[in-house]
Design brief:
globular, binds 1-O-phosphono-alpha-D-glucopyranose, 6-stranded antiparallel β-sheet, alpha+beta, 885 residues, 11-stranded antiparallel β-sheet, single chain
Length: 885
């Protein structure tokens, strides 16, 4: 049977034949921090953090392992063993029909066997518990009675993921399982750490509902399996075995499982038996009734609340095209940034690295979605994040547990990812555009401070402070405005140029894999982005000036970054940079000077324009294979892209288009070349690069990856979606749509992508979706849909409508709508296109709210609304364009 996916516009979906695909996993989680993954075979782990894995840590290939499964076995008519994992010998010979029904965030598997069916509903309650709940309903579907013996077994890891290889057996000796009324709870004596062991306070457990008639508890895994048995066919299930564990017993020193054997029961025709299994963890050795005694009624209530809460949380953005699958797919992308806030870039089966945190750029980019979905929290989050910026424009790379907590990298020499300084500006700009809160720019925040200076190239020998906050030479804490932070982050790179006058690549840029060109490498791609950041920053300053702000206070030493150094003189720029680094590394006075806003604005604009011009004029390639931009220089100072050899990078094009380095004509050539060299719908669209067929040790580790995987030439969603965004931004809506449409279509073809709805990090060479859920591309999909496709933009408090919807995106009645937050209002914008006009053919006719036509004034691609919007629905009528706008 082929696998079939049916996705609804609210995001709920059904997959029939879900058992025909491996590696499908689904996130079960809550904001309290319970992080689980579950597959149709009940594999996947459950954890709270790196040191608190309730179930065995499972990387993608471990999903095959029976030790990584939550299991309920049924001995049927005392003749064969059947299990909810589908893995028994009986099920291999007579496979179940398996269907998944999923919604935010509940996972329901229905398994149909010859004589019965079993439904397994699973979710993590949306509340403040570390808990996973499963309801198992086993129904006799024949007209004859069936005898069954249900046996629950959930192997419990109850320790750190590090102990998977590091003293796994020794840490089992700490186990201390207590037999409760309907529970088995492990409170290990120690948590293992050879630098100094700590008494363990955490408690890990499994319980079954009171209607589960426990005949025997089987806390020790090896006893449960039995000598000669296996987890596919445990003797405890197959045979009638005895043990004498009783309530109150404490069992110690072995690998544990939460196993409960039910008395044998007879199910009459059409009769069913159901019970609840709870898997949980506590921070203190005290479990409460909510964990150990969940009956069916409580299960149902918690499940309803969970569904409702997730629906509420996602209700601040709703997109309705003429295609329910696309609506549903976008709904899943709106959940993904939330998932990355919870899981970090670790803790789902593909993400078998990291310890739960995420990096600087991910921190900022996930905020893009937060601004669009949950703006109330976002000001504080952004504000706190700025405390990670160093006064030299680099930033802390170790991000702490608490929001806004940044830690010093005390052991290793920390690195500079040269793109890091560019993201806070993009996020802050979106925040101000969407909220009108320009005062945020003038709010003061501290700077991060540790032993590193000169973009981490030098170390302060005398650094002894335990505080990571920058102080002046007078020993008072220094704070500068957010604007000052942004200007430093974007001006320092301006001076940090390599021999071709592009910004130095340092230890890598957005592409983590370009990590071996630290001496002579340059990132032309990010030269463009920093260029447009400087120009946009300058526009912000002009706007501030329009609001009556004439001067800004900045650190005295900041003036060094504003000097007029010959833009073509690479050495002079480096000298200026080192003057700034040397000055601030000696300690700052803390003295502030007031600068004229307009003068600073002009200065930034000039610098920004120089960067764009530098790329436009010096990095454009024309060759036998087409025309496009060079994106990088390697460590031998050679261009990476080559239009004669057909070597092309997508990143090199994306930021040139986004920033305006690329002219309109150049953009058209890039689109043609990308279609020719990078477009491959069998892997979801535009690849990150062509095959260089060379292990380029002068560029980075990615050239050691097999071609077509991850950062070496896969369709890497984050960059591809940013390509779409850039194209839309420049008015190339059809080309932009093609990028997202191809990813969407490929993802939705479940037999090809082999993932559930949503956008994965990339597709592998065979088209399989990889690293699904936790990817920064989801934020960019949402951003592009809201601000470009539907064109709902803001500008310092004004609302601008610049739709770039294509004809086919309207439904049969000519309607396409978006409900989104802008200026703290949740508004549904309904575009009405009765004549079925395509992008390029229409213009905005009227904007109506509360039966009144709102006042507007034209902008480049649409209109700015100049009157107040008094209702939560706005109709925008489109009409045929009469002349070119
Ligand atoms: C991942 C990282 C991101 C990095 C990118 C390319 O992308 O999270 O920081 O820039 O790889 O190396 P993502 O998983 O967010 O799509």
């Amino acid at each position: 049977m082929k696998t079939k996916l049916n996705l609804n516009s609210d995001g709920s979906f059904r997959v029939t034949g879900v058992n025909n695909l491996n590696y499908l996993y689904f996130p079960l989680t809550n904001h309290y921090g319970m992080k689980s993954a579950i597959t149709p075979k009940m594999s996947g782990d459950a954890k709270v953090d790196q040191d608190g894995f309730i179930l065995l840590p499972t990387s993608i290939e471990d999903l095959h392992s029976s030790l990584a499964q939550r299991n309920v076995y049924f001995r049927v008519n005392d003749s064969y063993t059947w299990s909810i994992t589908g893995n028994t010998a009986y099920q291999t010979l007579q496979p179940d029909q398996v269907t998944l029904d999923a919604r935010f965030l509940c996972h329901t598997i229905t398994r149909k066997s010859n004589d019965f069916e079993c439904v397994i509903e699973s979710f993590v309650p949306y509340d403040n518990y570390y808990q996973e709940l499963h309801k198992i309903t086993f129904k006799n579907t024949t007209d004859k009675p069936i005898d069954i013996k249900p046996v629950v077994s959930v192997p419990i890891h109850s320790r750190s993921a590090d102990n998977l290889r590091d003293h796994r057996h020794v840490t089992a000796l700490f186990n201390r399982f207590e037999v409760g009324k309907n529970s088995l709870i492990n409170t290990p004596t120690f948590s293992f750490d050879e630098r100094g062991h700590n008494l363990n306070k955490r408690q890990y457990g499994v319980s079954v509902s009171a209607n589960f008639k426990v005949k025997h508890f089987w806390p020790i895994l090896e006893e449960f399996v039995g000598e000669g048995g296996s987890l596919l066919d445990p003797l405890t299930v197959r045979e009638n075995r005895l043990n004498d564990y009783k309530i109150g017993d404490v069992v110690t020193g072995y690998e544990m499982t939460g196993a409960f054997e039910h008395h044998e029961v007879t199910l009459l025709p059409q009769e069913s038996l159901s019970f609840v299994v709870s898997i949980f963890m506590n921070e203190t050795p005290q479990s409460d009734e909510r964990q150990t005694n969940v009956d069916e009624a409580l299960f149902d209530t918690l499940k309803d609340t969970t569904i409702q809460k997730w629906d509420d949380e996602l209700s601040s953005l709703k997109i309705t095209f003429g295609n329910k699958e696309l609506d549903g797919w976008i709904k899943w992308t709106t959940l993904q940034p939330i998932l990355r806030r919870i899981y970090g870039c670790s803790f789902l089966p593909h993400h078998d690295y990291g310890r739960g945190g995420k990096g600087w750029r991910d921190l900022w980019q996930d905020c893009l979605a937060l601004i669009l979905m949950n703006p109330t929290e976002v000001r504080t989050v952004l504000y706190n994040n700025f405390s990670g910026v160093r006064i030299d424009g680099s930033n802390a790379t170790i991000i702490g547990e608490k929001p806004g907590e940044f830690l010093a990298d005390r052991n290793s020499i920390s690195r500079v990812w040269m793109d890091h300084g560019s993201w806070p500006f993009l996020t802050t700009k979106l925040y101000i555009d969407k909220s009108g809160d320009y005062n945020f720019l003038l709010t003061e925040q501290k700077y991060f401070h540790d032993k590193f200076t000169h973009y981490t190239k030098k170390v302060r020998k005398d650094f002894s402070s335990t505080s990571n906050i920058l102080s002046t030479t007078e020993d008072t804490v220094y704070s500068g405005t957010i604007l000052e932070h942004l200007m430093i982050q974007n001006l320092v790179p301006y001076y940090n140029v390599g021999e071709h006058n592009n910004l130095r690549l340092e230890d890598a840029d957005w592409n983590d894999g370009l990590d071996m060109a630290g001496d002579r490498g340059e990132s032309v791609a990010f030269t463009s982005l920093y260029g447009s950041n400087l120009i946009e920053l300058s526009n912000m300053l002009f706007n501030l000036h329009n609001f009556g702000i004439n001067t800004i206070d900045v650190l005295e030493e900041f003036n060094i970054l504003l000097q007029d150094v010959d833009a073509q003189d690479v050495d002079a720029k480096q000298r200026q940079l080192h003057l700034y680094f040397d000055t601030i590394s000696k300690g700052i006075t803390g003295k502030k000077v007031a600068l004229d806003v307009v003068e600073v604005a002009r200065n930034l604009k000039q610098k920004g324009e120089h960067l764009l011009q530098q790329v436009r004029e010096n990095e454009w390639l024309e060759g036998t294979h087409g025309s496009w931009f060079n994106g990088y220089y390697d460590d031998d100072a050679n261009q990476l892209d080559d239009a004669n050899k057909g070597h092309m990078t997508l990143t090199g094009q994306v930021f040139a288009i986004y920033s305006g380095s690329a002219t309109e004509e150049q953009t058209k050539s890039i689109i043609d070349s990308a279609d020719k060299h990078l477009y491959d719908p069998s892997v979801g669209g535009y690849r990150l690069n062509t095959n260089f067929n060379e292990i380029k040790t002068n560029m980075g580790r990615l050239f050691g990856f097999a071609y077509g995987h991850k950062e070496n030439g896969a369709m890497f969603s984050h960059m591809a979606v940013m390509y779409a965004h850039a194209l839309y931004k420049r008015g190339f809506a059809h080309a932009g749509n093609k990028v997202i449409e191809t990813i969407f279509k490929h993802s939705m073809n479940i037999n090809q992508s082999k993932i559930y709805p949503g956008i994965p990090e990339y597709f592998d060479p065979k088209g399989r979706g990889m690293y699904n859920y936790l990817t920064g591309s989801a934020s960019w999909v949402i951003l592009t849909e809201v601000t470009e496709v539907f064109g709902i933009k803001g500008n310092f408090g004004a609302i601008i409508l610049e739709p770039k919807l294509l004809k086919y995106q309207f439904n049969k009645d000519g309607i396409a709508s978006i409900k989104t937050l802008i200026m703290n209002q949740l508004i549904e914008f309904i575009y009405v296109n009765p004549d079925g006009l395509d992008y390029g053919e229409y213009t905005i006719d009227t904007v109506i709210s509360n039966n009144e036509t709102l006042k507007t004034r034209p902008t480049k691609y649409g209109v700015e609304i100049t009157s107040n919007i008094a209702s939560d629905t706005v109709y925008i009528h489109l009409k045929k364009k009469t002349k070119e706008v």
